[in-house]
Amino acid sequence: MIQHILVAIDGSETSRKAARFAHDLAQQTHARITLLFVLEPPRMVAFGFLDSELITGDQHSPEDLEKIRRMLDELAADLPRAQVEKVVEIGRPADTIVEQADKLGADHIVVGARGLNAGGKWLLGSVSDRVIQHAGRPVTVVH
User: Fold this and answer.
1) DSSP 8-state code for residue 118
2) Which intervals hold domain UspA (predicted)?
3) 2-16, 59-73, 95-109: lowest mean pLDDT where?
4) Do the beta carbons of residue 91 and residue 80 sit within 8 Å?
5) Can you tell me whether residue 88 is helix, strand or coil?
6) 86 pairs with which residues across the strands?
């Protein structure tokens, strides 16, 4: 029986569909839902011959975090407050999703088939594929 569903959210339309699917599943099973948004950390890349490093990736501003919180609030609006938790973590998306599922005791994961990477470009299934391979529990991929 499904008691706790972890839903990976990245702002893409497929992750919003995944949230709606998880919402319906939670209503049928009376499961709790955790909406998880993973921010990718900036990366250090070796640059040049002088052991220099270049930081790549987006820096996350307080405004970005507020937008994420508003989006999670919007997605959670139809669920009873006691039934939903909203979590924002920093890390590599697939690894963080699996780690949070373990940490929170989620017995089911729902992800979108394709999401957005940190630069806003479509990420073609690599996160969902990795989650499926490493989750150790059922994973539903929503198209």
Assistant:
1) T
2) 1-143
3) 59-73
4) no
5) strand
6) 35
Alpha carbons 36 and 106: distance in angstroms, whole number: 12
For the chain, the domains span 4-142
Task: Provide the pLDDT for residue 122.
Answer: 45
Closest CA to 79 of 126, 12, 32: 32
Query: Between 3.40.50.300, 3.40.50.620, 3.40.30.10, 2.40.110.10, what CATH number should domain 4-142 receive?
Result: 3.40.50.620
Q: What percent of the residues of the chain are helix, what percent strand, and what percent coil, each to the nearest 5?
A: 40, 30, 30
26 is written with which tokens? 């939670």
Q: Where does the chain have alpha helices with state H?
A: 13-29, 62-76, 93-104, 126-134
As given in the structure block, the two tokens for residue 29 are 């099973």
Cβ–Cβ under 8 Å, residues 91 and 120: no
